[in-house]
Amino acid sequence: MNPLKMAMTTLRREGRRLAAAPFASPTPLIAFRSSLGSPSEEVCLSGVRFISTQVVRNRMKSVKNIQKITKAMKMVAASKLRAVQSRTENSRGLWQPFSVLLSDTPSVDVKKNVIITISSDKGLCGGINSTSVKTSRNIHKLNSGPEKENKYVILGEKAKAQLLRDSKKDIHLVMTELQKNPLNYTQVSVVADEILKNVEFDALRIVFNKFQSVVSFLPTMSTVLSPEVLFNAVLENACSEQGARMSAMDSSSRNAGEMLDRLTLTYNRTRQASITTELIEIISGASALEG
Asked: Where do the domains of the chain lie?
């Protein structure tokens, strides 16, 4: 099984486990054990239930597991980013001449417009997929008209899932798992030929995220379809995906650390309240025997 899929599955399981546990701030004035409540809960005089030390320990364990997963995923994303970043920088020289060549092309009346939307196949990478889909929808809206036809060609599972909700009839072609194996120029050439053979258009736009830094990417549109341009667009988007995932997992790890600090404080307060309650019971019992 893919290590990333295993990590995502474990992350979802730990998240459900964490969300399922009851929790309330353990700040009772005087707590006493309830013969009607569960062993993991105690009730204060105001009637508010608060968490036991065992439940807090379980939560701390879940958060630690999630933190380990997010740190591992950050390291994997950093490794993949380094691998694809150099290829992306080298490929930029392939498509830039096309952009200069077509910058002064006169506009024509476009009736058949095709939007190639590039996204990732996996999640946990911030908002890069939503950005691509939003840009594609804006282009679709700007080129809509009574005699105009707009079609989507989707490269990636996440864009497919979003566009199927409201634009199912406009989706002409879907291709996924382009990055299941290391991407190469031959593979992208086959994809470009497939689009040219099966899609009729007067104008075509490729929507992708151009990589700028680990925490920054730029929604970009290209107006020419060639293996060189498509290859660069897919690499740029893959680079943006890994950078966004690395940033998201780093943020998740920090949030898990902060939550762990709060849970540790809660555990100490709960333990202190439990000890205080037991001491009060012992003193009260001793006073009753003496009286």
From this structure: 56-251
Sequence-separated (6 or more) residues with CB below 8 Å from residue 198: 172, 173
Domain 56-251 is found in CATH 3.40.1380.10: yes
Mean pLDDT of the chain: 82
Q: Helices 227-290 and 185-198 sit at what angle, rounded to 10 degrees?
A: 110
Q: What is the pLDDT of residues 154-211, one digit of tens each?
A: 999 999 999 999 899 999 999 998 887 888 888 888 989 888 888 888 889 999 999 9
Q: How many other CB atoms are found less than 10 A from the CB of residue 173?
A: 16
Q: Which helix (H) or strand (E) holds 155?
A: strand 149-155
pLDDT at residue 257, rounded to an integer: 96
How far is residue 3 from each of residues 7, 74, 138, measured CA to CA in Å? 6, 13, 36
- pLDDT tier at 136 (50, 70, 90 boundaries)? very high
Evaluate whether 162 touches 125 at the Cβ level (below 8 Å). no
